[in-house]
Write a structure and sequence with these properties.
The protein is an alpha/beta fold and 482 residues long. It contains 9 helices and 23 strands. The protein has 2 domains: 258 residues, SGNH hydrolase (Rossmann fold), CATH 3.40.50; 107 residues, no CATH class. Helices cover 19% and strands 26% of the residues.
């Protein structure tokens, strides 16, 4: 028996002596490290093994715990030009080369976030002019039934050969930040072209009870969190941009207002960086160009419509959380295309949010926001909180003749508004701009009590500010669909 024990002990000791230090896939050549923030670096090794991490003049050491896990936290590194080598020493030595300092952003979501630069309007030209200051990490596995500790994928330097596969929204967002801030930007591409309802992006604990809201889901809760978010926790980041919701249309539209704030709180708690910036896209227009002034939740036969107006209202609910913002895409959609190719203007609008709210630039970052309404006889006066030079009629950048980026063009009338009386029957409203207000009326509604704007799957509203940013959909009533 003693002889067996001795052999077992020798084998265990040998295994410990030869166990190699390993790292999650998020660490690799060409990676971008977050500037000005403590930097967690972690991996696995033999239990009790001493591990050291060095980058530039930062150094840290630790001992792997009983399960073989280890973590070192490097002191914040200010931005500096040039690349360096990260060295990890244990029973083996790992070197990650061409590592740079900059800002790191999560680019997460489903089809519209996964939409590649090569298929976006102007994407091929943009790829040809790309530079090495933009880098992207893309996982090679995107769903998992259990949290994946290591993940898979690699960092890619942006150049004309690699850029076409980058997520278009993330690329245009990052390119604008790079141009305005003159620092490298790293994108962590956590997106998938597969159906990915919001609960699939939440941690297993946060997604508990989802079946009670949605019935038995086709996509298991947590699988995209497990496959793409868990492997990169707690890699230091500046913030996240989010474009998702195609899989939550219809029955998922009302629960979205609960689940999206829950997801944001869930991710922030897991990262333990506090309320980092989280900017969300309000879904692009999609559906019939013609139709009622206000699109109902249900069809005449009682079945759910896509309910995009209610899904967008769910997105708007996140503004109750700190450091959140919304980029409006209602005017960038196409009636017959769920994945419209104009990602340039959307990326720019997301970048405006970051440039203003994260980096402190004094620039407008949103269109006119509904503030209040007042009944004046048979008319309604709607007041807006407006930045960007005041209210204006405009047109989608994608439709403006010769438009290159955000632009507006005067049109003959203001569209997209509807009013209703006590019977809640909605009618199109005649609208005109009066300073920071819009005056509404309808011959069909003598005593208006409520207003809605762009409450359709494919909105036609054209209220912008003079900086060319569209007003988001809104409603003054608090009615809920049955």
């Amino acid at each position: 028996m003693n002889r067996v024990f001795q052999i077992f002990s020798l084998l265990l000791l040998s295994a410990r002596l030869h166990a190699e230090v390993t790292m999650p896939a998020i660490f690799g050549d060409h990676m971008v490290l977050q500037q000005g923030m403590t930097l967690p670096v972690w991996g696995s090794a033999a239990p009790g093994e001493r591990v050291s991490v060095s980058y530039a003049d930062r150094h840290g050491e630790t001992v792997a715990d009983a399960t073989g896990r280890w973590r070192v936290t490097l002191r914040p590194i200010p931005y500096s030009t040039g690349a360096g080598i990260m060295v990890i020493n244990g029973s083996n030595r790992i070197e990650f080369r061409d590592v740079i300092i900059g800002d790191v952003w999560i680019c997460a979501g489903e089809g519209n976030m996964a939409f590649p630069l090569s298929e976006a309007t102007g994407g091929k030209q943009a790829a040809a002019l790309s530079d090495r200051g933009l880098r992207c990490f893309t996982p090679t596995s995107r769903a998992s039934s259990r949290p994946d500790a290591k993940g898979s994928g690699h960092w890619v330097v942006c150049d004309p050969e690699t850029a076409p596969s980058f997520p278009a929204v993330g690329f245009f967002f990052a390119r604008d930040l790079r141009a305005s801030r003159q620092i490298p930007v790293g994108m962590i591409n956590c997106s998938t072209a597969d159906p990915a309802p919001i609960f699939s992006w939440m941690s297993p604990r946060a997604s508990q009870g989802i079946a009670g809201m949605r019935g038995k889901p086709r996509t298991p809760p947590g699988v995209h969190f497990n496959g793409m978010i868990a492997p990169i926790l707690p890699y230091a980041i500046t913030g996240a941009i989010w474009y998702q919701g195609e899989s939550d249309e219809g029955k998922g539209a009302i629960p979205y207002r609960i689940l999206l704030p829950r997801l944001i709180r869930d991710w922030r708690e897991k990262w333990k960086q506090g309320p980092y910036p989280f900017f969300i896209v309000s879904q692009a227009g999609f559906g019939a160009e013609e139709g009622p002034a206000v699109e109902p939740m249900f069809s005449d036969d009682g079945t759910h419509r896509r309910a995009l107006p209610w899904l967008r209202e769910g997105v708007a609910s996140v503004t109750t959380l700190p450091f959140t913002g919304i980029a409006i895409a209602t005017d960038l959609g196409l009636p017959d295309d769920r994945y419209p190719p104009d990602k340039l203007d959307l990326g720019r609008r997301l970048a405006l949010l970051a440039r203003h709210r994260v980096y402190g630039e004094e620039i407008p970052d949103s269109g006119p926001l509904f503030q209040s309404m007042k009944i004046e006889g048979n008319k309604v006066r709607v007041t807006f909180k407006s930045q960007g030079g005041g209210l204006a009629t405009g047109i989608s950048p994608a439709m403006a003749e010769g438009a290159n980026g955000i632009g507006t063009r005067l049109t003959t009338s203001l569209k997209g508004f509807a009013v209703a009386g006590e019977n809640r029957k909605w009618f199109p409203a005649t609208a005109r701009i009066d300073g920071n207000d819009v005056i509404l009326s309808s011959d069909a509604v003598l005593h208006p009590v409520a207003v809605r704007y762009n409450w359709r799957g494919f909105p036609v509203g054209n209220l912008y500010n003079k900086a060319g940013l569209p007003a988001p959909p809104f409603r003054s009533d608090t009615d809920q669909p049955e």
